[in-house]
Amino acid sequence: MKFVRLKAWAFPIAIFAVLSLVPTYASVFDDRFILLFFTRILVFAIVAVSLDFILGLGAMVSFGHAAYIGFGAYAVGILAEHDIWAAWISFPLAMVAGGLFALFTGAISLKTRGVYFIMITLAFGQMAYFTATSLSVYGGDDGLTMWGRSEFFGTDLFNGDASFYYLVFAVLAAVYLLLRIFSASRFGRVLRGAKQSEARLQAMGVDPYRYRLAAYVIAGVIASLAGALMANQNEFVSPAYMSWHRSGELIVMVILGGLGSLHGAILGTVAYMVLEEVLSGYTEHWRLIFGPLLILVVLYGRGGLMGLMNGLSRRAEK
């Protein structure tokens, strides 16, 4: 039993261990690009994990999940425009803004199922996107430039590249552990049960709608937190953060890594963004190469990259 438990945690421990060494590698080889690049990866991994929580556990295919990145980023950017740089103010407000939007849109969207849910989340996401583009006082289509980063009680937590990386890393680890706890609790079991048979849960006296809505809001809050971090890393806020293309990329990251495992979403994010960086260096039509690779992983991985790795692990034991 102890062996099985250790084995189940082997992959996430390995993933976090490798990611924790990135600043050391960047320092030894004096490679600032790799540090900034992986900071960006970790920010997107936080969003991908939040999406995997509702998509992998509850089968809620949200095609407007990128909107919450924009809510978090704009909350920080707008406050900075008004000379409010305190992270203890901007970050909670970013999470509240995203949570309220998730509560409102989720209460409506979760009344639908299947393709209707996908389309209505897409519609709400596009509403948020076009609202951002219409904010001419905050840059409109051109976006909003931040002349600095948030402040945390006078420390350089946000200003140093390595310290900011470790901050994002800590947030990702905390989010991952929190969602793993939720997944293993009664809350997570209800989400899985609703995914398989909603009618059976209702017959047992359990209303899955409330659980789904709570999960949807949690995911929105986490994605908004990632948006606040993204605004600080880029020192720039753009409506492009909220586009449906970005939502589609997030879904691809989750599917590529493997649905439902949470750490699979992290692995999928790393793989997607590294492949994008490498392939785009050869051709601007890199998606023509990436598409077939994704299809091969989905077809033969039987659960994305995590499914592929689990399969290889089982074969190695035989």
From TrEMBL:
It is a multi-pass membrane protein. It comes from the Bacteria. The chain crosses the membrane at residues 36-55, 86-108, 115-138, 164-182, 213-231, 251-275, 287-309. It holds the Pfam family BPD_transp_2. It is found in: Cell membrane. Keywords: Cell membrane, Membrane, Transmembrane, Transmembrane helix. InterPro entries: ABC_transp_permease (IPR001851), LivM-like (IPR043428). PANTHER family: ABC TRANSPORTER ATP-BINDING PROTEIN (PTHR30482:SF17), HIGH-AFFINITY BRANCHED-CHAIN AMINO ACID TRANSPORT SYSTEM PERMEASE (PTHR30482). This is Branched-chain amino acid ABC transporter permease.
